[in-house]
Every structure is written in structure tokens, then in C-alpha cells.
Write a structure and sequence with these properties.
Elements: E1 4-11, E2 14-21, H1 23-38, H2 53-83, E3 88-96, E4 105-113, E5 126-131, H3 136-149, E6 152-155, E7 167-176, E8 179-192, H4 200-206, E9 214-220, E10 234-248, H5 254-260, H6 266-300, H7 307-320, H8 326-330, H9 337-363, H10 370-384, H11 388-394, H12 401-420, E11 422-427
Length: 433
């Protein structure tokens, strides 16, 4: 094609591809495209394809030349990527340094490459980690929550003033910018002042109020508001108290066990709670070890991560947490920059973990067969004490078999690393959790 290409290395994951495009190449392609345009363009006063070249050029020359430039640069870029086996991530940054019609055109593309670090010494890691242990108090705490969930509510008749810990019943209407919002209106609403989830504004706004009184409660919403029209708004709730109640815990007995749907007797319920909590503690401790393991591996194996990979991970985080819609993230106009400050550090860690794991999978030649996937799913069903059918449904198997194989490969790597690591476990202070 006559285009001269030169590749410069900026750092281990950044390349600058420079293209020198001779004027003769540009002119030839421009002439071809202009003649093609003359064959089908219809201008006022001329039949289709019969307008003189100079007239067509007057109207369309600029746009045709721009398309030719873009086309040649795109072709040259793709050719350079293929010839040099560049594993590119993200979009290139194109810079045209000499766009004049006279003389050769010089353009450059700065590209980021997928990191290909050498990961070594990943077995036999030595580290200390704080872990949790299951206690009788943990089991009793969960049973207490079950009693609260199945509690009954009784009217308080010996006083009329609200105190902390009461359950307040009443009617409320929310006002946004001074206007009543019908979606924020409720009769016989119950506000449990003892619940951690209850907004503190409701607690302070209702305590010391009398039955029959109306409290004006202002709640300030930020960017994480449940609805778009509430973002960064102050909502005023007018809450009229109709009665106050107290919560009466359900008895901890066989009846509660049956009502919970988890057992037929209190002894069975207690045993089921203990089993579930043991599984949870085991998983949490494994997660803590895995986090510390990768912290050490990341510290030991340094490499540059392109911003494009971090941005893609931020998008996945936003999607996973339902903070943006998929069609929004997939749009070329989506701007990830506002989310970088909050998510970049975590996203970069996740990218580094993935790259390190992929390299270990490659180094150790780990391949996951269909039989291995089935065995892994059987193990999950056994550990969670659920049916294999339910596990398949949770992992969308076999529809997502390929993704699951990748997941099992990752899990296999982590198992191998943890099995060979020298880990000192220390009991974590529960008050500090």
C-alpha cells in the first residue's frame, strides 16, 4: 500500500504506532473515491451520476478526503497489529500530526497492550491471616433474630409518648420540593425504632412525640437515592402517630422451628443453624486467606495495568451492583471517569488477580474437562446441602458451561495455592470486625 509503519515502545504495555502515508497514496485513493462518488451522486441541475467532477468535489471533496484518511489509517493500523501480534485492549488514541494536502501525511496511534508478566514463585507463599471461629453465641444470636422475625406486636396502653425502642404506627405523606409524592404515602405504616435499618431521622423525629401528633421528618438523599427524582433532595415526611406498640419475641421452641420452615423441632433447628454457620465461617475464612494470598502475590509480581482494563472492570462492577444499565455501559458515549475515584483501586486489584491467575493456569497447564465441572458441581451441592438441580440452576449450567469451566479453573488455582501456602492463622477479634 506504500505506507511506512514504525512501532515504538513507550513502556511494557504501551506502543506508539507511527504511519507515514505518501501523498501519492492519498491522492490515488482520493481520486478513486471521488470518481466513484461522481458515478452515483445527484446534484440539483444534473442527472444522477452526471455532475462534473469539479462540482462534486466542491460539495463533497472535504468529506471524501476525511473518509479516505480514516480508511487508510484504519487499514494500516489493523495491518500493523496483525503483523506484530499486538494484543490490544481498549481503543487506540489517533493523532494526525500533518493533515495538510501537500506532502506526506504522518499519523500515530497510541495503544495499550494486555499485560503479559512473568509470574513466578507463586507456590509456598508464607503469610499470617486473621480468621473467625464459630461460637455458641453466634448460634444464639441467629436464633434471637429468628425470634424477632416471628415476633408479635402489642399495643402500649399505659403511656402515650414515644420512647426509643418502640414500634410506632401511623400515616405518612412524603413531600419533594414542597409537592406531595403519591408514591411516598402510606397508612398504618410501622416504624420499628429498635431496628438498625430504620433511618436515624425517623428515630429522632418520633421519639418524645405523643399519639395523635404529626412529626415533620426531613430525610436527605444523596446520589444513592432509591429513585431518580430523589437524588440529592431533602424529602419531608409528615408522620401522624396513631398508636405505639412493643415487640414481643416469639418463644424459642418447637413451634418456632416449624414456623421458620427450617426444622420440625428446636433441636433440629439449632443443629441446622450450627451447620449453616459452620459452612459460612469456613467460606469466609477461605475468602480471607485468598485475599491475603493475592495481596502477597500482587506485591511480589509487579507489572503495569492499562487504564482501559481498569475501566472495563469498573463497568462490570457498576453492572453487577445495578448502578447502571447494560445498554448505557455498552454505549461508546459512556463516561467511566466519574466512577474512577471510588472504584479504581478495587477494580485494579481485581484485574491484577485475574491476570496473575490466568498466567498460573497457563504455567501449570490446567485444563478443566466436563467431568471436572460435574464433580465440582456435585461437591457444591453436597457442601451446601441442596440438590444438584438447584446448583445447576444457580450457575446456569449447562448453558454457561464455558464460563463455568473458567470459574472452576480459577477455583482450582486458588485451591492449589492455598494448599501449598504456609499460613499462620490468628483468631480475629469479633468486636473489631
Amino acid at each position: 500500500m506504500g505506507v511506512t509503519t514504525k512501532i515504538e515502545t513507550s513502556d511494557e504495555v504501551t506502543r506508539r504506532i507511527e504511519f507515514q502515508i505518501p501523498k501519492a497514496v492519498l491522492d490515488k485513493r482520493y481520486d478513486q473515491e471521488l470518481r466513484r462518488a461522481c458515478s452515483y451522486i445527484q446534484l440539483k441541475g444534473f442527472r444522477k451520476g452526471k455532475a462534473p467532477r469539479n462540482v462534486v468535489e466542491q460539495f463533497y471533496g472535504g468529506s471524501i478526503r476525511s473518509e479516505v484518511l480514516s480508511s487508510i489509517i484504519d487499514e494500516s493500523f489493523k495491518e500493523a497489529v496483525l503483523e506484530n501480534a499486538l494484543n490490544i485492549v481498549g481503543a487506540p488514541r489517533i493523532d494526525i500530526t500533518d493533515p495538510e494536502k501537500t506532502g506526506d501525511l504522518v499519523a500515530s496511534a497510541e495503544v495499550s497492550l494486555f499485560p503479559d508478566p512473568e509470574i513466578k514463585n507463586y507456590f509456598d507463599e508464607t503469610f499470617s491471616v486473621e480468621v473467625d471461629a464459630l461460637s455458641d453465641d453466634d448460634i444464639e444470636a441467629e436464633l434471637k433474630e429468628l425470634q424477632k422475625y416471628h415476633a408479635n406486636y402489642e399495643d402500649i396502653l399505659d403511656r402515650t409518648k414515644v420512647i426509643e425502642g418502640d414500634v410506632v404506627v401511623g400515616d405518612y405523606q412524603g413531600y419533594v420540593d414542597g409537592a406531595a409524592d403519591e408514591r411516598m404515602k402510606m397508612s398504618n405504616a410501622m416504624v420499628d425504632l429498635a431496628k438498625d435499618q430504620t433511618k436515624k431521622e425517623f428515630i429522632t423525629g418520633l421519639v418524645d412525640k405523643e399519639i395523635g401528633a404529626t412529626a415533620d421528618i426531613t430525610v436527605s438523599y444523596g446520589e444513592d437515592a432509591p429513585r431518580e427524582n430523589l437524588k440529592n433532595k431533602d424529602v419531608v415526611f409528615k408522620f401522624t402517630i396513631t398508636k405505639i406498640q412493643k415487640r414481643v419475641l416469639a418463644e424459642l421452641d418447637d413451634e418456632l422451628a416449624k414456623k421458620s420452615g427450617r426444622a420440625q423441632s428446636l433441636a433440629e433447628l439449632r443443629d441446622n443453624v450450627a451447620k449453616r454457620r459452620r459452612r459460612q465461617v469456613k467460606k469466609n475464612n477461605r475468602d480471607l486467606k485468598e485475599e491475603k494470598l493475592y495481596e502477597e502475590l500482587i506485591k511480589k509480581n509487579t507489572f503495569i495495568v492499562p487504564q482501559a482494563l481498569i475501566d472495563e472492570q469498573i463497568k462490570r462492577i457498576l453492572l453487577t451492583h445495578g448502578m447502571v444499565e447494560q445498554k448505557s455501559v455498552q454505549s461508546h458515549e459512556f463516561n467511566v471517569e466519574p466512577y474512577r475515584e471510588h472504584f479504581s483501586s478495587y477494580a485494579e486489584t481485581m484485574v491484577r488477580r485475574a491476570i496473575i491467575t490466568e498466567k498460573i493456569i497457563k504455567n501449570e497447564k490446567i485444563e478443566i474437562s466436563d467431568e471436572a465441572v460435574n464433580s465440582w458441581l456435585d461437591k457444591q451441592a453436597e457442601e451446601m446441602e441442596v440438590s444438584r438441580k438447584e446448583v445447576d440452576r444457580n450457575f446456569n449450567y449447562p448453558e454457561q458451561k464455558a464460563e463455568l469451566k473458567r470459574y472452576v479453573a480459577y477455583a482450582t488455582v486458588v485451591d492449589k495455592l492455598l494448599d501449598k501456602a504456609k499460613i499462620t492463622e490468628m483468631l480475629r477479634d469479633k468486636e473489631a470486625k
